[in-house]
Amino acid sequence: MKVWKTASFQESAAKAIRDAHGLPHPVAAVLAARPWASAEETAQFLSPSLSSLGDPFLLPAMEPAVDRIWKALREKQPVVVYGDYDVDGVTSTAMICRVLARLGAEVHPVLPHRVDDGYGMSMEPVTRCMDEYKPGLIVTVDCGTGSREAVEYAAAQGVDVVVTDHHEASGEVAPALALVNPKLGDDPHSKLLAGVGVAYKLCHALVKKGREAGESSALDIDLREYLDLVALGTVCDIVPLLYDNRVLVRAGLERLARTGNAGLKALLEVAGTKPPYTAYALGFQLGPRLNAAGRLGTAMHALNLLMTGDAAEAARLAGDLDRTNRERRDIETEIFGLASAQLDESFDGKKDYALVAAGEGWNQGVVGIVASRLVRKYNRPAVVIAVGEDGVGKGSCRSIPGFNMVENLQACAALLTRWGGHAMAAGLELPASRIGEFREQFNRIASVALRHADLRPSITIDAWLEPGEFGAALYEGQKKLEPFGMDNPAPLWGLRGLAPAGTPRTVGSGHLKFSLDVNGAAVPAIFFGWGDRPLPDGPLDVAFQMKLNSFRGTDNLEMDVKAVRPSKQGE
Description:
Strand order of the largest sheet: 3-2-4-5-6
Structural class: alpha/beta
Strand content: 15-25%
Largest sheet: 5 strands, parallel
Low-confidence stretches: none
Number of helices: 19
Oligomer: single chain
Number of strands: 18
Helix content: 40-55%
């Protein structure tokens, strides 16, 4: 049973936002409860504009990075773009390669293999690409901050490295010619950028510098053409959709509706994604299909899709990724069942503050998704480790608010051979023989960090509605808060004392479809995963997100129900 909570806000602040921006009062209350919502920030939030993006040269080391890339362009030096195998890395690589090619570069993309090479700029792929392409310059995207060995090796061979990244530094940083990572700077807003956001800033700086220098190749580039890729990578990397990220994703979703990218068009078609496009479509329909390539094989298939200009090839590649994604789902379901069974045997909600599950032969490519599902199930930080035949465990970590994953992995450094990532998501590597020690130590650390946290599953109602407030005006006001995502979730509304209208029925794979009487109208509702379970007797309190359901040319507002309980109307 979930604990029901209500977001707190100042009524005076909600009224001020309502009056200043003409919003329905419940929408204004949602904004008033957000911790970042000063008057100025609220105004910028409601009117995101590309003109508000910060100067790219404010990012650390951007000036020398741009100068070195233009030197490579003018001297016709081959350039390798070294990316990552997730959606953030693949979209970053595709965009940088396209922009550099239009600026006149001989450019070669390189992506590591998730299992064979691991995360980051590792030695084997760097050695291979230097032998094959003989680059004068390597530019990394979405990786490289901690890749000391590979950067030093490249430098010893006379090859400069420009690193663009957004990951936290877990130790000494790589001695690159330029290290463009907002996490190493002072601007709190740019620190939120995904890897593709940093890459976009680099492209912006390159074009800006080129135009100032009179470079003709820079005059014809309109970087708005690439905002669909930026939006896709940003949403899929689950970074906060605030400030520059919000601007980029909002503009990118608008761009997606008229995209010229053959691969994205094919991906939209195979995913059955229809306009108007949303962050949900990017994160749950397009992203998983691109990610499937790197999880079960090589991410080059996903990159090839985003790079091709041939519609027939794009359709073929998108179909392949769709089939791979179905296979990924089957493997993920199996491992999630094994991990859950392993944890259920001993889980004690009063003693277990963090979860570690491990298994031999588990597919390393899906353990991150499994960890995310375990977090949702137990409301605890989770680490899922795939143990290989070589006795090495490679794991993915997912966290909860209030527990910085990278900082707490640092406290386990003596047991780990590698680790790195974000506050909410990270990766690690350790000998399989030390997994037991790691499980105990990690749980001890979590018990200290989370000892005062309420770890019971809960929901937080953003605003309780009066029945007459549910309707088109509220939905239109809610749309002004889009795109929804990390740190800007879709509002969770509450209504008290509702009576079911009609007979509930099970639909799809275990979902409950029913209607609720709201102010005399029967409003359709769906409760995913509720299946054959009955609704509580009597009037109901309902926590829901409001969605627009378009079916056969008709639009209807619908409740996406997240929780129900017997009504406590007097509370």
